[in-house]
Amino acid sequence: MDWTHYRFTSVWDLPAAPGAVFAVLEHADDYPRWWPQVRSVTRVDDTTATACFRSFLPYTLAVTLRQRSRDPASRILEATLSGDLDGWVRWTVTPRGGGSRIVYRQEVDVRAAPLRRFAVPGRPLFRANHTLMMRSGRRGLAAWLRTV
Questions:
Q1: Total structural domains in the chain?
Q2: pTM over 0.85
Q3: What is the pLDDT of residue 52?
């Protein structure tokens, strides 16, 4: 088993229209405004940005995100990650009842040396850190959607 490889899936059901949700998610520059653990997003060009994340663990992850796919018709966003994490992320937004189902998938390898050193004993903490970050993101997105 590669202790530095992670696959995550988070599912959020929100009472907002899929188009409205997709419109917010495609603007990564605004994530720090509604997602507290996304500390910064700095646009490099039309398809690339750098971002810093920090949840409850005392470590900030820095990554470069490169848009791999943006499909407004299917409401799918994909990006590759490089830096402290290497891999990919995907948002998929579909209708659900009177609102939306948002599925976040991520597959990454940890490259940050301090985190790699604690790969085995830290794995449960790293997974919990991600879970808490995603819960906060769901709450933040729900609140943000009520204001736009």
A1: 1
A2: yes
A3: 98
